[in-house]
Amino acid sequence: MPEMPEVQGLVDYLGAREGGRLVGRSITTARVANIAALKTYDPPIDALVGTTVTGAARHGKFVDLTTDAGIHLVFHLAKAGWLRWYEALPATVIRPGKTPIALRIGFDDGSGFDLTEAGTKKSLAISVVRDPAEVPGIARLGPDPLDPAVDRDAFAGLLAGRRTQIKGVLRDQSIIAGIGNAYSDEILHAAKMSPYALAATLDDAEIDRLFAAMSDTLAEAVAAASGRPPADLKDAKRRGMRVHGRRGETCPVCGDEVRSVFFADNSLEYCPTCQTGGKLLADRRLSRLLK
């Protein structure tokens, strides 16, 4: 799943910084191939045609393309979605239901992009709105973890009183925006903290450690993603992971074996030596739990 660093990389590539591909380009094509992915009807998707892109922004894990007509194209790539950029948009006809393409956007210079989604579970979400806050997922977002206003004390305030496992708190978009399964694993490994630790029980030293791990891990990942074309972002993310997606491999810090806990539709990865005092967290598929 694309998370905050990869989404920021997309935003930087498309238009948030100098050299972005989209700013100043007029939209000539806006074609939906998967109608279920389009979550809004007013303005219609056709209202994008003839507008000029003025910028790109990120809200949590949402991409927001702004236009000179005051209309925003907002999309969330969900678990298996991605953006495929073309310097020359293919002339092939999109056949709804026969392609992973959910949306095709074309520009006046012949370039464009497809929003695609792999797999059978379709969660990619596309909205055309006059204000990004009209998108329910954006309206619910908590603060961005790299916002200067989210200092150590503000972060402690977000955790206070939450008798919820810290893994879940980091992934809750209404508390902190942009962190998902992968980077929460990486942050907790860097903080040397069990994913099952309760947020409300963390002492000052643990909060210090967790805040530093969150800030450093995300800042490094954003820097690594910046300037990369979309085709390179996924592989760059995988290469940068120390524990996530590396079950059975060696922890780069202590040399222990990276372990997994499996849930219904995902898993978490951790290092027992670094994070749980050597204790193994049981595979939930076996209905066991070792604390």
Automatic annotation (TrEMBL):
UniProt keyword Glycosyltransferase present: no
Protein name as annotated: Fpg/Nei family DNA glycosylase
InterPro entries: FPG_cat (IPR012319), FPG_N (IPR035937), H2TH_FPG (IPR015886), Ribosomal_uS13-like_H2TH (IPR010979), Znf_DNA_glyclase/AP_lyase (IPR000214), Znf_FPG/IleRS (IPR010663)
Reactions it catalyzes: Hydrolysis of DNA containing ring-opened 7-methylguanine residues, releasing 2,6-diamino-4-hydroxy-5-(N-methyl)formamidopyrimidine
SUPFAM superfamilies: Glucocorticoid receptor-like (DNA-binding domain) (SSF57716), N-terminal domain of MutM-like DNA repair proteins (SSF81624), S13-like H2TH domain (SSF46946)
Native species: Microbacterium radiodurans
One Pfam entry name: Fapy_DNA_glyco
Homology family: Belongs to the FPG family.
Cofactors named for this entry: Zn(2+)
GO terms (BP aspect): base-excision repair
GO molecular function: 8-oxo-7,8-dihydroguanine DNA N-glycosylase activity; damaged DNA binding; DNA-(apurinic or apyrimidinic site) endonuclease activity; lyase activity; zinc ion binding
